């Protein structure tokens, strides 16, 4: 596949986000709403607990069980560090980290990170606050990269060890196709689905 044809496919997939079966105009409006929501977080060096909660609700809006777990990881006690490492400090440290692996590990490590976050939620915070540098660690996007032969074969779930090569592949696509990492993520999420799916993320105030 040539670079041009790959980029054309990515652009087509992006246009089908967040609902592959929806009208193009509706999808475009939904993406604009999502962009406006995420713009509130771009460039922040730390988050308030309220901001962290809004990002959890965005990322896991259609996954109640995962949303509940992640919200437990930033409840009042966890946020202040009364029950273990402070979630507030972990987020601040991750956003200050210069090493890509360390940034996600501070949030997603199963033993020392934020409870209930994992790669998906940890990377969502990184991508929201550092959109020029990070994207979301997503199992569907990972599957799409494997189909494009940009990631080696492996289990369906996203592992911390997948993060650095996954991020490199997404950055390569963004650079080659003059796309934002956000739009690359959208394209890969659509491409990684086996059927039309309900939106995985919904910005508050924009229920689509």
How would you describe the overall organization of this protein?
The chain has helices spanning 3-15, 24-39, 49-59, 64-72, 76-80, 87-96, 100-108, 118-129, 139-147, 163-177, 181-192. By secondary structure, the chain is mostly helical. α7 packs across α8. The protein starts with a helix and ends in a 16-residue tail after the last helix.
The chain-level mean pLDDT equals 93
Tally of separate helices: 11
What's the total count of β strands? 0
What is the straight-line distance between the termini? 34 Å
What characteristics describe this protein?
208 residues; mainly alpha; disordered C terminus
Note the topology.
Elements: H1 3-15, H2 24-39, H3 49-59, H4 64-72, H5 76-80, H6 87-96, H7 100-108, H8 118-129, H9 139-147, H10 163-177, H11 181-192
Helix pairs in contact: 1-11, 3-8, 6-7, 7-8, 9-11, 10-11
Brief overview:
By secondary structure, the protein is mainly alpha-helical.
